[in-house]
Structures are given as structure tokens and as C-alpha cells.
From TrEMBL:
Keywords (A to Z) from UniProt: 2Fe-2S, FAD, Flavoprotein, Iron, Iron-sulfur, Metal-binding, Molybdenum, Oxidoreductase
Source taxonomy: Eukaryota, Metazoa, Ecdysozoa, Arthropoda, Hexapoda
Pfam families hit by this protein: Ald_Xan_dh_C, FAD_binding_5, Fer2, Fer2_2, MoCoBD_1, MoCoBD_2
Family assignment from sequence similarity: Belongs to the xanthine dehydrogenase family.
UniProt name for this protein: Xanthine dehydrogenase
Residue ranges constituting the FAD-binding PCMH-type domain according to the UniProt record: 240-421
Species per Swiss-Prot/TrEMBL record: Allacma fusca
Keyword Transcription belongs to the record: no
Listed cofactors: Mo-molybdopterin; [2Fe-2S] cluster; FAD
GO molecular function: 2 iron, 2 sulfur cluster binding; FAD binding; iron ion binding; molybdopterin cofactor binding; oxidoreductase activity
Domain 2Fe-2S ferredoxin-type: 17-105
Manganese as UniProt keyword: no
Domain of life: Eukaryota
Amino acid sequence: MTVQNSSEGVNSGVHANSVFVIFVNGEKIEHPDIQPEWTLIYFIREKLNLKGSKVACGEGGCGSCTVLLSKYDTASSKYSHKAINACITPLCSLYGCHILTVEGISDGNKSCHSIQDSIARNNGTQCGFCSPGMVMSMYALSAEKINEEKLEIKTIKDALQGNLCRCTGYRPILDAFKDYQPNCSNSADIEDTWSLKNIQCENPRTINNNQASTLQAIENLLKGFENGGIKIGDSKYLKFKGKNSIWFLPYNLDEALQILNENSTARLIGGSTQLFQNLESTCVENPIVLVDKIRELRAVERCEFEQRSFLKLGAALTISEMADALQIEIEQLHESQTRGFRSIVQLLNLYGSTQVRNSATIGGSIMTTNPASDIQTFYQVLDCWAHQINIGSNSLMTKKMKLPFKAGSLITHLEIPHSKDNEYIWMDKVTKRRKFDAAILNAAAKLTTDDSKTFVQNLVLCFGGIAVIRFDVDFVFERNQVSLNEAFLAMVTTSVVAELNTKLRKTQYSEAYISALTKNLLLKFYRNVTSEIQGKPLPHDDENIFKSSQLFRLDKESKPNDLIGQPIAHASAYKHATGEAQYCDDVPKIDNELFLAFVCSDRAHAEVISVDPTAALAVTGVVGYVSHQDVSKNSFGMVIDDEEIFASSKVTSHGQIIGGIVAEDRIIAQKAAKLVKVEYRNIVPLMLTIEDAIQNSSYYPEQGMKLKRLIDHADTIDKCDNVLEGKMYVGNQAHFYMEPQGCIVIPKEDNEMDVISSTQNPMEVQKKIGEALNIPSNRIIVRVKRIGGGFGGKESRCLLVALPAAVAAHKFKRPVRCILDRQLDMRISGKRHTFLTDYKIGFTNSGRLLGLKMTVYCNGGATLDISEAAIERVLVNLDNAYNIPNYDLDGIVCKTHVASNTVMRGTGGPQAALLIEGILDRIAGHLNLDPVQVRRLNMYVEGDVTPYGQTLTNCTVQRCWDECVKLSEYYSRRDQVDQFNRNNKLVKRGLSMNPCHFGIAYTAVFLNQGAALVHIYRDGSVLISHGGVEIGQGLHTKLLQVATRELGIEASKIYISETSTDKVPNATPTSASCGSDLFGMAVMYACQELMQRLAPFRKQETDSWESIVSAAYFDRVSLSATGFYKTPKVGWNSQKVGSPFNYYSTGAACTEVELDCLTGEHKILRTDIVMDVGQSLNPAIDIGQIEGAYAHGIGLFTSEELVFSEQGELLTVGPNSYKIPTVGSIPLELNVSILPGSSNPHAIYSSKAIGEPPLLLATSVFYAIKDCIRTQRRSTGKSADFRLDSPATPEKILMALEQSN
């Protein structure tokens, strides 16, 4: 709740500064010098050194910082235990409270809670960065439901909506938690879980489920602080004065008014979910009065007053408490009295996340200036009254007041009336992502009939959301007999649309879309209300559903200790779950360390006239400034050196790094960086899109590619039975790795440097730092323990952080840490490339595609980076799984003024698959054939030759396809879908089946190499170093498994510590799904070499490993070996003809979706996936990769949309505006099967790469949505031939439904 008093002047009063008291993990902490600008996450990580809670977004949108807040409420005389986001919670607001972090529910590496055990054993972690937050959200849910025997899946999904995961696809997390029982003494007894051998990769831990005793101990600690440490009735409030502001915590209304009258510029804060958006903005200049502890503002009361019956809710109640209070009324009162309450509760289920609802307050939601507020929208229609105190006069007003409320007032209570028998209430919202997303448009309506329920007396409507200025329309028909019919709806619609046209805001959404959406919401309202009046309410979605299956075969004849083929958990799974796993920013602060914050361009294309850091350098704690003047070589690049470390004379993208402020700590550096003054002169033209580049002929001329194969004649297409032309656009995607970019550089003697980098490419970081500073690579050691996701985004763009940090460390001769916040990371880092195509196709009447001619434009961005690889991969993957006889492609890389785009999981492959699948889908629609029939007709078979000349061997795409047809029951379900669509007018279901056929290897042949170093120590323990980076894909785990087979020893004797350039030099980046292929073979060779050396010392089978090692040592045998592998027989010539790939990974997916044709929103009902992984090294990890990649593709093709301003600024810079899939985005039923009986002679132990190929299978979601649209268009007499670009957002879907023939 935020209200700005209009008067001026500050009087802090005579009240003494309070000592801050908080309990953390059972320990009482008193801090006499707390700074009000500190967030909880800053305090627990930087001051208490509890690194388990992570910072992934800084805006309460991802859940990685989730902790359990326990406090005592004086109004209800109860203790509460709730999940909150530590990154947006002001530390001052937690006086006298208890915080439980992930460290508090386990005991180091000795024991863990059963929730942590469950997520680890069920393979619910990959990169592990989100895992502590997931665990704490589930722990908090369990604390709330401590007396329930089993939790419903809907309840679990709701609890996890605010926790994002980019790796797993959520299925294993749901499976881990759905069997958890809060009051079970040992919920670790799940017999059907796969990973019962995980103990062989980590030390055994005891499992505890002592939650009830933990919560009781917390409550006992808090008993002395029932009223924030102050006895009830005591009039002393709390005050915390810092360097920049003062915070007041009153405990009753009189105290609050006294403070406000004495501090006229004070701001009122309730849940403060919008106060701290990230650490950079935590400077709060004006006094703050926190009102959420005021007893009078936390009351709940059912009232009767002057013929009004209502529920009175204190303005300091959280949204969760509001929903609980309304639910009690629903359960206790007659249905007709709680229609409004039921609608509100349903709407609140879509409001934010559990963590946000546990913090945001009623008063704050009413007072916010956010146009998307759902609460303000229903407030307008329900005849709500508000209690308001005018600050200064202290006069109380209780009345119905229109929004927005005036500044200088304090809302104390909200009155929500009970509904009457003749009142019908409806509410809804439309979002890009159904859960945990701001409303594009929200709506609320209250319709009042006469007593006979025949005629309408009154209708009140309100619309709000991102796209409109909130408005309401009131219809009164007291003297007229107006029936509730279609004529009534038409009249209302006409009036509302006329008002809408005056209330549209300038946003990313088109006027046509918002107009159509408004009309459709009115139709939804009409259908719902008429059905309810008739006693036949429309059914609500059943969200209490989740099914999954994972099918694979185990090798039951494996040798003892041989873990190859076994579904063991990730080697660091327990460390992930307990928060012990260390990432770059978890490294403890180094003595004398500095922090580097960037000065970035706020122009996309401009000359840099001057840069003045004077004001920043004057800030206490600032050490200095770095710029292009401090660099030996200021240019870098992956193919050509066309990018600057620090912009020197001009900037070519918004967010480009100009310089950096180096300071004693993070907050000082980030604040001071904002004080650097930069003067610009704009340059024209400004080119942001592919269309802009085409108009200005702005290309990278040497980096395009052509690919042509003409088996018939050049005019084959024109001679075909059918010829079609068209365009298609495929949008880009942010990597959204959970761990932002980061680097720590430690300078040493003789220009040596230790670099701890969050990178997929240690070799390139080493090499480019050396070039920038003119230091040989042998002085620079780059180390990586693990990274919290990468997906290609940390292959080259990690240099944006590593190079400036190295320059600063070199200049000031002190360790330098540079960690980006999410918003800056998204602004300056590269994204997946966008593509625009013009194509022409020719095909037979049976659907056989005979010719494809296409021009493909790619937005490379301001510098080339690795865009050459993206355009190359699109062209070579445009065949996907299909034999296209005549193939004529032209790929062009566009040069624009956006941050340089880069490689991303699949690098062009997913976009290519979407394009060719769209062409076959269009052929099927044109011929009125089932797309499955057309796809199968065109599919590759053994011995076919690709357009680039590679002959297919061991081709299993048709096997995967046929297996998927069978397992998904495609044909019977197609009949069921058709029947459903005949019976439903406005909701349609679609079904699509799509293959993938993805080549594995680097087309740059020199990258197809890997190395490893294996040491055996005298005690028999083994240390493996290899060139690959653990990103979450389970690379270390698989290589441990390789070593168990080759060495014949248990995994507990084998350890992989980190990746380091001083152990394995010149390592290929960990990307392109090649990690296991390259480094697995290298480890295998090294182990085989060692076993050959040890063979003479094995006298008999019973000899222990330790005795053999000891004997070899005493015989002076080297117990260290290197392994090296290069992929054989790959490559192509200068005309791009040859065999660039080692083999192909193939698969097929069948997806069924349901589409709301009024809003464009969809849900995925079921997906069946069959994937050929050869002979899996680890089925659990491989299935995790399949599911995670598939979910990644769901985001790419449906919800993830990057939006730029006209000036080139990226507007979608965090989870509150950029929407990756959540736990509610995945299929309600997900079945994954590994193709049985497959092998692969071209990779280690006949396995296949799996990291990228399954992402292509998410095309099945896109084309299932398109199937729904086509069905609906046909039912309304429209053409089945229409354009749908990616991503298929609700806007694009609704516009495709509206699209004319």
C-alpha cells in the first residue's frame, strides 16, 4: 500500500532508533546498524553468508529466493508460516519475525529433509539453481497443510506457480512432491522411484521429517515477540534510521497517524511487493511507514449495517488472508450470498504467485497505480466501500469511493458486500500465460435482475489491464423491461466498445486485438450469467489433474559397480536440494574485493560525445572507473572481432557497455554507476527489425549461406499439381538461465589471473582476456564449478562480463566481482535469432512435397557473434525429417541495432523445424488431408540423402513415428477430438504429431574434440578433470558412470571437482549436445589407459582396488592419464556438401491442446513423446533432458515474446514481463518413452546426444493450436489457409481466428 502525502518537510521526531531483531534458522540476530534499503535476500546472503537462497530475478518473479516467514499476528492471536520472496521483502518489515532458509531444514551434508530427499531422488533438479526455492515453497505448503494426509496436485501446482525452472520441465518436481505426505513420519519410502542407486554418487544422508517440531520450536522462539518485541498496549513504535531513509513500524492506528503527522513526506507501505524491484533501486529517500503490523488494519468481521450485509477486511491483510476469509464465508453462507466472493476467490487464484499473495496487501492493491490490478477492477463493480483517513485532519470517511483514491489518505478497511439472490457476478482476466501473469485485459460484471429473474434492472461492467485505462460502464433499466438475450448483449457490446475506443493505452497489443477481446469477454460474461440464471452453471477447468509415465528398459546384466544405463540421480542432486551447491556468486567474498557495475548506453544507435564519471567518483566507497582507455585490445568476437569491450566512439545497441564503476560493495557500485553522465548524438537510420534491415540493405555480406539441390529441373515447382507461396515469422527467445551472468577475477603476481566464471566456454574466456590485456593464456586460469543453466547464452556472451571484470582487476590490482541482475542481463545479452522467410512450394495432389524455394532472413543484431552458425543450422535443418527432392535456400544475416543475438539450445534447428512443419501443415490444409498422413508420406527412410549430401544410415525417424502413433493412440483420439469439436462451439481441441531429426556434431570440424585428465591417488580415490562444463545436463554424472564401467569401482570413489583450463587446455565449449560424446570418450580412453597400466598388478579377482593401486605406485607406475578424442569422418566442403554430422537424434511427439476461441488462451491436455537416445547412458537424466527441452520449446512457440520500444530498448526484461513456462504450462498428461532396441555405433556405448533435439518436438504444441484454429475457422465458413506466426500468443491466436480469407 503506497500513499504519498502532498505536504513537505521531514521531522523524524524524538523516538530513539531501534535495534533490529530477527530470528533466522532458529538463531536470534540483533543488528544495531540495519540499513532500510536492505532486502531480506541481501541480508541473508551478504551479511549472514547463507548462500542457499538464490537471486535470479530481483523482482519476485521466479521464486529462487523463497524462504519461510513465520510470525505472530496480534489481530488473530495466531502464528502463521508462509512462503515469501526474499528479494522484494524489505528487511525492516521483518522485525521480530522468524526466517527459515533452505539451510535451516537440513544439517550440512549429513542429513536432509524428506522434501529435499524426494526432489533429489526423483531427478527434480538439473542445474539446481531453482531447487532451494522449490524446496522452500513445498516446505511452506506442507507447513500450512501440516494436518492433511495427502496434498492435491492442484494445491501443489498453485504453491509452485511462483517458482520458475528452465531445466526440468517441472514433471519430475511434481512427481517428487505429489507423493509427499506432510504428516508422514518418513515420506522417503516411495518404492517406485527410479533413482534408488543415487547413494553411489553422493555420501549417504539421513532423512528427517521433523517439520512439526521445527515449526513448534519457531513458535516458541517468537513467543517473546508477539507484538514485534513490544508488550501489547505499549505505545512505542519502532524506528530504523539508515544512511538514506527512515522506516517506522507502528503497531496501532494512533501511532501511525502520529508518525504521519510528524513526517509529512512519508510514504505508506503495506506488502511492499513493488517497492524493491532489484538491488539497484533499493535507495528509498523518503521516510517509510510500514502499516502491515497495525492491529486495527488486520481485522476480519462480518457486518450488518443500514440494510447492508458485508465482510469487513482490514487493509493490511494480505491477498492470501483475504482469499481465506472469503472462502470461510463461502463455506458458511448460502450460495446466493457469496457469488461475488466465489468470483473473487477464482480471480485471486490467478493473482501473482503464492509468495506474492502472501505479501501483497488489500490496501496496496487498491492504491497501486498498476493498470493491471485485478482487485481494482472488481472493486469498481461490487459496490465496495472503503474506510479512508485523511492524513493531517485525521478525519475518517466510510463510503463508496471511485478509484483512484487521492494522495494523502490511509485506507484502513474494505467492505465487500454479500450478494443478493437477484445479483449475478462474473470476473475473468486474459493473460499471455494463464497463471502468474498480469492481465492484458481483466473484466468484472455485476448483473441485477428483477425478482422473477426475467428482466435486467442493472448491469455494471469494469475493464482494466495493461492495454486499457481502467473504465466502467453502468446500465440502468429500472423502468424498462429488458430481457437478457442476444439483443441485450449486442446493445451492451456496442456501448462498451465505444467507451473502449477512448480508453486504449499505447502498448504492444493492437487495437484490433483488444477490441475483439473485449467483445469476446462480454460474450463469455453473457454465457456464464445466462447459464447460472438457468441453474446450469458452466463447468470450470479441472486443474486437479496430472499424469505422467516414463518408459525405458534397464540393463539387468550389468557388472557390479557399472552404472552405465542405470537411472541414477544427478551427482549433485542433494547439494542442489539443500542449497550446498556453489555457483559463481556464492563464492565467499575475497579479501580486498571490489564490485564492478556497468555504465550502459540508453541509446541504440548514437555517437558518444562525452563520458563524465566525476559525480560517481565522488561517492564514498567508489574506487575508480574503467573504460576503453584501460584496454590493450578493445575489440573481440567469435568469428570476427567486430565488438568492443567498452564502447569508444559510438554505441550500436541499447544497453551496450560504455564503462564501469568499481566500488567497495555491490550497492555502492550500482548506485554510483547511475551518476555517470553520457552525452550522445543520435545516428540514423535506427534499424531494429529484419524489415528495417531489408529496407536499408543492412547485412553481413560474407556470412550468409546458400544451399541448393535440384534433382529435377529448375522449374519443378511451377510444374507441380499445386503451388503455394507465403511468409512466416519465427520470434526470438531469451535464454533465461536461472543464474545470471557472473564472473570473479583475482589478480596475482606476474600478471597471473584466477577467473571464476559462469561460462560454457572457459577456453574462450581465457583466450579473450589474454588478448584484451596482452597477457599469454598460460597466466590465466579459468575455473567453473557449475553454472545455473546456460542454453548457449554463456558460450560467447559471458565475455560481456568476464572481459570488463578482468580489465578492472588488472587496473586496480584487486579482486573484482561482477554479477549482473536479471534486468541488465536480459538487456545486454544476446537472444535466440528471429527469422523471416519468403517461400514457394510445389506438391502433388497426394501431399508429396517436390520442391522448396525459400529466402531466410536472420536478425543477427549489432555484431556478428555466432550468427553464422544460426543461419547455417536453419538451412541444413529445414528438411527436418523429410526428403525434399528439390531444395533451393538462400540464408541472409541482417545487421541491426539490437544486442547481438547468439546461439541458443538448438541454434536454428527449432526455427527450421517450425518452418518446414508449417509448410507440410499448409499442404495438408490445402488438400484437406490429415497432416499426419502428409508428414508420413514425406518422411526420410534409410539410405536417403540430405540436401547437403549426407547419406542417412541407422535412420530411426519412422520407427519413432510409428511407435508414437501407437502409444498416443493417435487415430482413436483424432476421432474423439473431432467429436468434441462438433459438440462445442467456442472451445476447440487440436491434435498434432511432429517428428524431429537433428544432426549431432559441430559443422566447424575443429571443435569436434574433447580431452580429459584422470588421477588415481594412493588411497584408491579417483579425480576426473575434463573439458566439459556442468550446466545441469548431468554431464559430470554421466562421466562418473563411464568411469565406473571402465575402472570397475563404485562411484563413491570417483570425484569430479570442477572444470579448469590448467587441467584440460583448449577445451571445446560445452554446447551442441556433444558433451557426453566428446568428453565421455576422452574419459573412457584415459580410464582404459590406466587399467592397462594396472592390469599386471591384479593377481586374482579378489584383489581390492586399493591394493592394486598401492602395488602399482610402489612399482613406480604413473597413476595419471590423459584421454583425447576427435570425432571421425565428419565435415563438408566449401560448397557445404558432405557429412557434417556424426549421426542424427530422432523422435516424435503427439500433443493435444484445448483452445478458448474467445480469448485465444490454450492449455495442453496431453503429450506423448518417443525419443531415440540409442542405448541410454542414464535414462533418468535423458528423460529429464527430453522433458526440459520440450518445455523450453513450449515457451519458444507460445508464450515467450521479446518486446522492444521504438527507440530500441528491450521492455521485457524480467519474469514479470517475459513469460517462460510455469508448472501450469506443461501438459496435464505427459508420457515419455525411450525408443527400445536402438543403438548408435558412432558414440560412446551406443548412446545418443539428447540436450537439444527434443526441443523441436514442441512444434507439436504450436501445430495443435493451429489445428484448433483451423477447425474453428472452418466451422465459421472461413478458409483453412491462414498465417500464424510464432510465438502463438493469445493475441496472435485470436487474430488468426479473426483473420479474413
